[in-house]
Amino acid sequence: METCSQSSLAPGLNSVSAPSRHSCEELMLTYNEGEPFSGTVGRTLEDSVQAYPDVVLPPKGTPNVVFVILDDVGYAQIGCFGSDIETPNFDRLAEEGLRYRSFHTTAMCSPTRACLLTGRNQHTTGMGGIADNATGFPGFDGRINKDTGFISEVLRDNGFATMAVGKWHLAPREETDLASSRKRWPLGRGFERFYGFMGAEANQYAPDLVSDNHFVEQPFAAEDGYHLTEDLAGRAIEFINDLRNVTVDKPFFLYFAPGACHAPHQAPRAYIDRYAGKFDMGWDEWRAATHQRQLDLGILPAGTELTPRPEWIQEWATLPEEEKRAYARMMEVYAGFLTHTDHHVGRVFDHLETIGELDNTIVVVMSDNGASPEGDKHGAFNSVAWYNGVPLTLDAVLPNVDLLGSAESHGHYPYGWAHAGNTPFQRWKRECHEGGVADPLIVHWPAGTNGTGEVRTQYLHVIDIMPTVLDALGIEMPTVLEGVPQKPIEGKSLLESFSVPETSQQRTTQYYELLGCRAIYHEGWKAVAYHPMRGQLYVPGIDPDIAFDDDRWELYHVAEDFSESNDLAASHPQKLREMVDRWWAEAGAHGALPLHSSRP
Fold it and tell me: With 80 as the cut, is the pLDDT of residue 531 above it?
């Protein structure tokens, strides 16, 4: 049969036209799926007219889309953001693409992923916290309904192949077992293929794996060299090859979320040992050196101050030698884990380059939140212990230092390293200071960006990624998806920043709320309040039952004070009141109430 002609893709930005319907009226009648049959049904074939459901064909040359979501990787832990941890593949993407210094997330995994995939704020999606710990309020129930469409559903309906590999963590706990509904699993939300795990984390050597809609055994044992990240990268390449063995023209969307570097920190010994001795200087000195590298790279605005180490994080120089050695080894394990991840994610990029598709693929690399303090003061040999009410103690670490990173461990570094990993900021994952919500972002798309290796300064939030990508593809977000009227997209396209470095197109207001911590950004100012979480308080002497009204709000002019170093709350009380009032208005508008804190 003769095929319909397709419009060709002209080179350069904004050259992608909207997907079109396969409609050759001279050959056949067509109709949209779900609409009345447009042909004629008579008594016989001779007095009948055939019609076929329309097929969406994207324009020839439409870019692929790849999202890479790193886990618990802090602002300062990738090489191109100032780290001395080796990440050559991510660094190469940055050298050939763009880095965004003012990219923000929600400070935790499930909410950030919900924002990324829907273009709406976390509470609008119902994912106010992590999926496992939903509460009985609309903004926190852990259920993303069909009125909140995923980018995978939109792209699938516009002719893309859709694939998800790695961590999901977007279904409530009761919907993640063998007997549960699959409607909130990846195949229920627009993905046609899935291989990965359903929860927050996975043992890298013995994961609970799902293939499409069913649980499967891992391909081979850890004793034979199995590691989850390697397996996931191989499966991503396999999905791409499966598609290309049938069609060379159909674009694909790959959502690749390896789950690294979330605890447990586990990596092959060879990757860990390459960092032997590299962190013996400790977190104080490493943090200062990283801050200087960030300034030299232009990641930070000139003059950005390094926030001080709080007194409740131990000064490295005062630690006993056995603790220094244990803590340094934990950081060696993490660094090896991240370099190992970079290598295997790089295999996917290398494959795209080999088949000639890397330059015409919109690649977005990001982290879901700041570096994690969940190893507490001393780190952990078995970080699961805390979730079972067992304190993380030094006594559990010291006898097992040589086993850290192996299949026998389930480790996590101390929060001193998390603080350093978020240089130059305060705080970390789970909280709304910049250490929790500011994250690395790399965009690589040579066919559609100008200014290789440049650093963009625009303020943006993870909800802006979906509308930006749809804008780049020439696809409008439908008002009705799968027959369900859609909630409005709350992100905004920042496509202009791909080609115009100084564009004023950016987000001007963004609220934050997580586990009772909250913040508001507005036109260069930020107000932020820390609320303690029972079980992991970090700050000695703070009341875990403090009323929300008694939390202390801080105020920063982040347009001039990028790292939140100079609290202006006392000197600008009227401005602080305005910002706090704005937070209440935004929180109410987006379903972030009632305030409550729960143990994740």
Answer: yes
